[in-house]
User: Which sequence fits this backbone?
């Protein structure tokens, strides 16, 4: 089996040196750059917008995995597409017509993703499985980095794994929130193929990033 993809969440990076930190984490082996976009309304925190994605996009070749925690989401799809997102992930609660939102993303040549909050059932994904290239299972309630992994979400990861396998399509199963070397093995065993990690990657200074990423994959550098 291919090794799990690691998607460092730049929410935990040094915002005063964001470009340098993104370059450092890419050089340290990140497979995706995970960008958490929050609006202070859909989730109780405010982060960054398309201008920052655009500014960072030129710094590395690594694909940008943009997690939109904003509502309404539709008015911003175009801007994030123009900014250079490679994957755009939305929450089903972030607009009245999530199927249309996913199609709009795909029509722009970007991979559409659907995020499931801890309280959102897998049933929300079922009618949309053919319209997504990524499923993001939230293992914390969205809004903040540094929270503890919610173990009950492991059953959901397993259920999503079965749905993806039955679809016969290549769909990334990404897990986001509280992922560290202790919780990563359970997420991988449940069927995750990509792990988002903020605090567990951006700790210990830049020299530690490669080791931190390797530890999430289950090995050392
Ligand atoms: C939470 C975000 C996560 C978060 C992960 O709303 O979607 O990506 O930053 O941070 P850690 O790995 O610190 O839980
Ligand atoms: Zn995220």
Assistant:
């Amino acid at each position: 089996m291919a090794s799990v993809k690691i998607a460092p969440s730049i929410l935990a990076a040094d915002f005063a040196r964001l470009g340098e930190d993104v370059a450092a984490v890419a050089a340290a082996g990140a497979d995706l750059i995970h960008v958490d976009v929050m609006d202070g309304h859909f989730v109780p925190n405010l982060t960054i917008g398309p201008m920052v994605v655009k500014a960072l996009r030129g710094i590395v070749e690594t694909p940008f995995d943009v997690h939109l925690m904003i509502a309404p989401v539709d008015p911003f799809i175009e801007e994030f597409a123009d900014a250079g997102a490679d994957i755009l992930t939305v929450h089903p609660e972030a607009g009245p017509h999530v199927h249309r939102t996913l199609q709009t993303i795909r029509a722009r040549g970007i991979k559409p993703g659907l995020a499931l909050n801890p309280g959102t059932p897998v049933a929300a994904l079922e009618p949309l499985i053919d319209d997504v290239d990524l499923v993001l299972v939230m293992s914390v309630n969205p809004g903040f980095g540094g929270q503890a992994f919610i173990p009950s979400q492991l059953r959901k990861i397993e259920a999503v794994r079965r749905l993806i396998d039955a679809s016969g399509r290549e769909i990334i199963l990404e897990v986001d929130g509280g992922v560290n070397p202790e919780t990563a093995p359970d997420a991988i065993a449940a069927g995750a193929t990509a792990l988002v990690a903020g605090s567990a990657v951006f700790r210990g200074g830049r020299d530690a990033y490669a080791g931190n990423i390797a530890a999430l994959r289950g090995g050392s550098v």
About this structure: The chain is about 30% helix and 20% strand.
